[in-house]
Please model this.
Amino acid sequence: MSEPLKVAIAGLGTVGIGTIQVLTIHADQVAARCGRPIQITAVSARNRRRKRDADVSSYVWFDDPVVMAKEADADVIVELIGGSSGVALDLTREALAAGRHVVTANKALMAEAGAGLAIEAEASGKTLAYEAAVAGGIPIIKALREGLGGNSFSRVLGILNGTCNYILSTMDATGRDFDDVLKDAQDLGYAEADPSFDIDGVDAAHKLAILSSLAFGTKVDFESVYVEGIRNVIAKDFEYARDLGYRVKLLGLTGELDGGIYQWVHPCLIDAHGPLAAVDGSFNAIIAEGDFVGRSTYEGRGAGAGPTASAVVADLMDIAAGRFNHTFAVPSEDLRNAASVQVEKRVGAYYVRLKVLDQAGVFADVGSAFRDHRISMESIIQRDHDSDGNVHVVIVTHDVLESQMMDALEDLEKHEAMVEAPHFIRIENLGGE
Amino acid sequence: MSEPLKVAIAGLGTVGIGTIQVLTIHADQVAARCGRPIQITAVSARNRRRKRDADVSSYVWFDDPVVMAKEADADVIVELIGGSSGVALDLTREALAAGRHVVTANKALMAEAGAGLAIEAEASGKTLAYEAAVAGGIPIIKALREGLGGNSFSRVLGILNGTCNYILSTMDATGRDFDDVLKDAQDLGYAEADPSFDIDGVDAAHKLAILSSLAFGTKVDFESVYVEGIRNVIAKDFEYARDLGYRVKLLGLTGELDGGIYQWVHPCLIDAHGPLAAVDGSFNAIIAEGDFVGRSTYEGRGAGAGPTASAVVADLMDIAAGRFNHTFAVPSEDLRNAASVQVEKRVGAYYVRLKVLDQAGVFADVGSAFRDHRISMESIIQRDHDSDGNVHVVIVTHDVLESQMMDALEDLEKHEAMVEAPHFIRIENLGGE
Model:
């Protein structure tokens, strides 16, 4: 058996410790599959004396992960610190410059700095791998890059943030309101004390930008992602959606449109009996639609020590076995700069919830506002009276251009009977059998 | 760019033509990802003059695929002929012996002759790859072998045969009987003129044996698979199952039990709102349960030219890029001979349908038969009268050892009120959120 692959790990949180556990518990299996052992030689973390669920005393300790990246006796540096700049970026650059492979779980880093890092990896002839950055429990990077590598994709979409999916699933199941469920999720450790990164869609947007680059051969372009989080979805939306045959999910969607690429993260209504509808709790799921493969769907845990460590080890095994891939599937020079398609160009159906005064003629006025904008309605239903005596009017449209839809809602907002700004959720058709 | 990877294709049915189409239409993408083009140099099929959806006139033609395997100017032979012996086996052996890689879509070959072929591939230092052999639309071989390669699995299970799933889904949706739906499936081309390979579970068993070897590091062992097809599921079973909160699926299941490995293919009742329940039509789906990754689920088309060709090309891309894997993830000498666990050792719940004379005391007699065998019932319900005046009694048991269950059914069969042999379907708990 050949020389071991030597690995240094920067960051000893749950994922770092999980990685040590996988490599320790399954050392024989990993070595048999790779043709050589994978051996941890060095670690770095903020606090050396913190109690951990793995014995790290036999590894060389570095207080400074950037120094470790340069100086450790290691073939690979595993970056588990996080953040798109600062230490994570510095150590990744230093490691590549020093001729070491890098494995990272850092979606922010890859989405925001990945294009440049890919070039640095190429210059050094080393691997920059990041399976753990997108849905750790789903080997989706490998699937898009290799398993489905002979396909041209029409779109890739999915439930990319476990915290949002947990909150939406719980709101749906319990009828409780957003703030209430968020607080519980924080108490249970499913949401951060500062939850905005998750619930405002930024985390999903990072992952979407990475998937988009891999699927469409484009330069990773996080700046162009349209992002809308889940703060404006209310308990009543789940009830109305259910009655209409839908469920509410936060999706990231990327695809080709008008010669450009769209990257949109926003809440969606999806068919209650179709794809992704049953993906609940903290699970992630991704659908890739390829010209030859058709619809290929993946579901697994999006985060957590075990799934993320499993993905980190998969990357390490590829490196140990000498299986090489370009960072974004093709050499950087072959990645194209695609035009970004704004969400105003979206064509699809919309769910609209209006809160209006309970007075005669409102239906007719709403109807004419939509007609004036040439928007055809599938249904318009008056729903519950609010405690304040106002009523909800729920509308489902046929397919319409988003900008046209926004014009109609802007007009509606001016209507005297309107108690608050109209609220809408896009309806996505995910296909089916 | 390096020298092209030269490929010869044996078998020009829909998958062979699909493979040519992928490699032609996506030639640039494939080359960019692999660092070299993939070039078809030779083909072989039974009828040279048959009209095909791809122009094969520029490739060297071989009447004999075995001769092509030895003599073609090719680095890889793609075997798309089928069958576990005969020409497919001969050409695979010849190709490996001649120092060529082999890519095959042949599940029968890999399940029945794979262990020996893996040794021959090792002797020649070449790749024997077969992503297309199991659920072409799902890169599950790559996932088990690489993406989830750091996990130890508790079980792997799935809907592995599209024909059966189409028939069961259609029976469920329409209330029609098996023979009737099978005939339609044959007319539509979803089932073969001789359908036994699919509907008796042999095809699913081939795939299960391959998945089992990859997941558990065992020598592929098709002979030990317990196989039960879908011929005995009647229209009423879907109705009763639905009322009980279940759906009916043909599953292949493999896992560790009592220090051995089970490999079972049989119809199952599964939770109507849980995993796999919504997988309808000709789709396949597979769940892998790993110790670190947790539950990871895959869904896609099981067959058809496009998905299968997509999988063939993925294997070719790995070879072109120099990404190597052992045939069954580890060297043959590291594969273990696991004890096969018989289905009599299964512990689980059962759905039992009895057809009995409509007479007093039958419930009590059934109840005591189960009690005598220490089987606890969750429910016992009298259902519809048949046209012949007999009644259906439907029982759901709590978990029980299969051999105990079979003893009880054997006793019940002797009961004077029993109009026909008891029918049972195993109830599988696939977990959930």
The longest strand of chain A covers residues 246-257.
